[in-house]
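Possible regression after last week's pipeline update?

I re-ran a chain I had predicted before the update to compare outputs. Posting the input and the new output here so someone can diff against the archived version. Not blocking, just want to make sure nothing changed silently.
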Amino acid sequence: MRFVIVTGMSGAGKSTALKMLEDVGYFCVDNLPIPVIPALASLLSGANSEIDKLALGIDIRDERNFTELEEVLKKIDDTGFAYEVLFLEAGDDVLIKRYQETRRTHPIAGNERLDKGIELEREKLKFLKSKATYIVDTSKMLTRELKGELNKIFVENKEFKNLYITVLSFGFKYGIPNDADLVFNVRFLPNPYYIEELRPMSGNDSPVSEYVMKEPKAQEFLEKLKDMVTFLIPNYIIEGKNQLVIAIGCTGGKHRSVTLANELYQFLKQDDRYGVKVEHRDIERDSQGKVK
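New output (post-update):
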């Protein structure tokens, strides 16, 4: 039997994950009292059990018994019973925004501010995160993207590395993305903005991307960028990083940065050891005024 414990930060997507697992044939139980977990695992793993896939949702709502969880899991480990831990993560700012949008209260914040509740929850979940088989950071994910990642793990059974990469194009005139881990400036390349017929288009259009990439400096930059991220990504994985944002900027975020971001995305998506997506933050913004 495949036994998956689904846990993580409140607001990071546990309910969505359980629903997805239920849709692909898992018997799902949410918020079962922690002392009962060993008995459930033993019962459902018996020879007469017809259940071969079990997903158990655990979160901080059962705070009274949560302190027992570490000991409960140790007892299960001692029996040799195999289980996996899916830990859903998200940044504090993202969690706060989600709580504000849904107007929910944090399960353990009490009379404290929301950020204090999140800080306390992180501390209580630290041991569980250390046991995680998979850590999925949903900060930058749409629901369909989360389902796609879980499908890779639990349906396609692909090898999973706890890293999700976002390749992000942006315009420097609108500010550097505050969540970027790596920032690259491609304003040294010829600007399609000055070509009248290319100006209304974006890097998603072939005439623009071809114009940008025919420049030898663009080709050389792309090769050096590929070489750098090929070196960095395995080291980030070893370090335990689970979210990487690679930001590529030009002046307005419409032509050169979009082209290079798309090129890097096409390169990275060939490797299924990590999740990857491309976003163009400023592509729809009007570029008015003189572009330098």
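Follow-up from reviewer: compared with the archived run. The chain has a mean pLDDT of 87. Marking as no regression found.
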